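Please review this one.

:::
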Amino acid sequence: MARDITLIPGDGIGPEITDATLKVLAATGLVFNWDRQLGGMAAVAATGDPLPEATLASIRRTRLALKGPLTTPVGGGFRSINVALRKEFELYANVRPAKTIVHGQRYDNIDIVLVRENLEGLYIGQERWVERDGDPHGQAESVAVVTRSGSERVIRYAFEYAAQHGRKKVSIVHKANILKNTSGLFLEVGREIAKEYAGRVEMNELIIDNCAMQLVMRPEQFDVIVTTNLFGDILSDEISGLVGGLGLAPGGNIGTSAAIFEAVHGSAPDIAGQGIANPSALILAAAMMLDHLGETAAGDRVRRAIVATIVADEVRTRDLGGTASTGEFGDAVARRVV
């Protein structure tokens, strides 16, 4: 049976990497009904709104979206598209896997999944200016909100993910030594939930700065990491750097009413239309989407095809040291999937 999925090709290199990804998905033999919708600058040009109501209505209907990179227009009072999507569909868990594809580099045998709380913390954007020494902008203040319920659902998601995927350990990353209330609450909830998984999933705790250092010094010690919004944003990019950068970094946003899968990198307008972008991140995000749909065998085929294309076939885009175009890379992966 065909599954309805909202498709947002996005801006810049988005349409190019989306086309390559659709070829790979077609090669799985599964059938999808793609509801193409606009977002970002493409949507502004067509409707004046970077996140049109038609796009939101489509996601409400399908409860599932595959999204290319979107650009939020500068100025004009436009809200962040990604933040708006997270709030609209309560996308509380941002899942970012990173796994070594090209071996023999500085970091090898990396296989880490970062689960980031996606709705709370400093990123709620509650900020204000306070007058100080006669200067109306003499002091800036920002509020961080961490709730027990928000912490519980994302930490429980991380432990369930570990249990269901044969992962052995969840690392809870915090700054409770300084941020005793906000980060302290997150850690407290993590300790409570960890007890429920004793004997199945190991738990350890790391302060954020130590975690950042350990990721560089001994990344092989990590399995699943769960942390708050700001820390997760920073660590996820660091982890992507261990495996070759954002060109190989997929992401999934899991919510109460929808799930949205995406390439983590930006729209790269400087190379748009040149056919040199690496579509791997969006293809890997599509594999995560297949897992979400219960099509885990197809998801595994796609991931193996990416590895075989890059390693065995040595078909690589420019960012990986090769000469393949976006389309050529997508075709090569699709052949491997078949």
Summary: The first helix runs from residue 14 to 27. Residues 1-89+257-338 form a domain with the Isopropylmalate Dehydrogenase fold (CATH 3.40.718.10). The longest strand covers residues 121-132.
